[in-house]
Specification:
Length: 449
């Protein structure tokens, strides 16, 4: 079949090599009409030809599939450019969002750090009154329980030539003053111990948390990260010793007049009418400076005493808690709902040792501290009592007191006069004190490091 195309001549059966017509390929399955890229397409006599209007020498014929490929390639290139633009815009938006979130996280970390610092400086996340109340009540209960032992210990340490036999001294006090003599000065003792123990515990907890905060902050700075309040930073034994010593010194400064009153009521029974009467008489006779006579040796003695007691107790408690690892992940129950043998599971640390262990740990800590620091306690009480009543002023320093006692009262052994009743009273007193403190602290929902 012969056809005439616009712009062309009447065609004979085309020669495959003749221009402007060329054999383009096998006969297509579909009949194409229309324009594509400015070219006309027709099907004729088994060949598909393309012709361009005008001089075909300037526009050689092309295969239809080449035209389609070029069109699709152009479309894909345009689509790729658009995708690249969208991808670049999305990346820029994500980078801006990440920078904004980083700034917000940094500001939040700085605010959290400042808040944690303020909380730790004021006693930590828990209100300070919880530690204060727990420590004060623990001190009152413990001192009341061991008041007879405290009376005998004070008499032995403050009296020249007193017997060193504990039972004999207690019998002598009972014969002279009756059962009330074993509890003399207990009200003054409780009034002194309540604020002193409360201050010791609250300052101790505050210093512990402050030390932990500083160490955690330094560790995070070294790692280059942000401050994490939840990061666990265990305290060293030396840090607990320092925190306890500073707590003891702070409590001694605040409560020292009550300490003087308690010592006078025990050493000179019947002369003073209560705690406040004792303080009034002392100020009237000796001046207000008498309330703080012997404060320096007291502070020197309180630092190692309270520091050792807190350190030994907490280190022993930590060791016990690490040993009491129990399997609590799962347990097999029988049909009656009773507990059968435990199944293997992860091991966790119990929250608190039992009552008897806490009692024993506190007793051991108090006894160790009293034994180590007893000579300082003897020297402190001698300086505190001189010049009061009929006692002469014969000492002018702690070293002078120690030398005079060693020289005139039987050597170094005299520095440990009253150690037996003192240790005997401290053993139950410290145990009860820490037991009551831990119980009240848990009851009030307070936590500690």
């Amino acid at each position: 079949m012969l056809r005439t195309l616009p712009g062309g001549d009447r065609l004979q059966p085309p020669d495959p090599q003749a221009l402007p017509y060329r054999r383009l390929g096998p006969r297509p399955r579909s009949y194409w009409r229309g324009a594509l890229g400015g070219h006309r397409r027709e099907r004729g006599d088994g060949v598909l030809v393309c012709s361009v209007g005008g001089d075909s020498s300037h526009h050689p014929p092309r295969r239809v599939d080449h035209v389609l490929q070029e069109s699709f390639a152009s479309f894909r290139a345009t689509l790729g450019e658009r995708r690249a633009l969208r991808k670049r815009a999305r990346a820029e938006a994500e980078a801006a969002l990440a920078r904004r979130r980083a700034r917000e996280a940094e500001e939040e970390a700085r605010g959290s750090s400042l808040k944690s610092s303020v909380q730790l400086r004021s006693g930590g996340k828990e209100p300070s009154w919880k530690y204060l109340v727990s420590g004060a009540l623990a001190g009152v209960v413990s001192r009341t329980v061991v008041s007879p032992l405290e009376v005998v210990a004070t008499t032995s340490m403050s009296t020249v030539g007193a017997t060193q036999n504990f039972l004999r001294e207690m019998s002598a006090v009972f014969r002279r003053e009756g059962i009330g003599g074993l509890f003399k000065g207990n009200v003054a003792n409780c009034l002194k111990v309540a604020p002193m123990k409360g201050i010791q515990f609250v300052v101790f907890e505050s210093f512990k948390q402050l030390i932990a905060f500083r160490r955690r902050h330094q560790r995070q700075l070294q790692k280059g990260g942000t401050l994490s309040d939840s990061e666990d930073v265990p305290l060293r034994a030396g840090e607990r010793l320092i925190a306890g010593g500073l707590a003891g010194m702070a409590a001694a400064v605040i409560c020292y007049p009550l300490e003087v009153s308690k010592t006078l009521l025990t050493a000179e029974p019947g002369r003073y009418r209560g705690v406040f009467g004792c303080l009034q008489t002392l100020v009237r006779e000796k001046g207000i400076g008498a309330l703080y006579r012997g404060l320096a040796p007291t502070m020197v003695a309180m630092f190692p005493y309270v520091g050792l007691e807190f350190m030994v107790y907490e280190q022993l408690k930590l060791a016990v808690m690490q040993r009491q690892m129990v399997a609590v992940a799962s347990a097999e129950l029988d049909r009656r709902g009773t507990m059968a043998r435990p199944l293997p599971g992860k091991r966790v640390r119990p929250e608190q040792p039992n009552v008897w262990i806490l009692l024993l740990l506190g007793a051991v800590a108090g006894t160790v501290a009293q034994t180590v620091c007893h000579p300082l306690d003897v020297i402190r009480k001698r300086l505190q009592l001189q010049g009061i009543g009929n006692r002469p002023i014969q000492y002018h320093s702690m070293l002078h007191v120690a030398c005079e006692i060693i020289k005139n009262e039987g050597g170094v052994r005299a520095l440990y006069k009253g150690l037996t009743p003192a240790a005997t009273s401290v053993f139950p007193s410290a145990g009860v004190s820490y037991l009551v403190y831990e119980w009240l602290k848990n009851l009030l929902g307070a936590t500690s490091l």
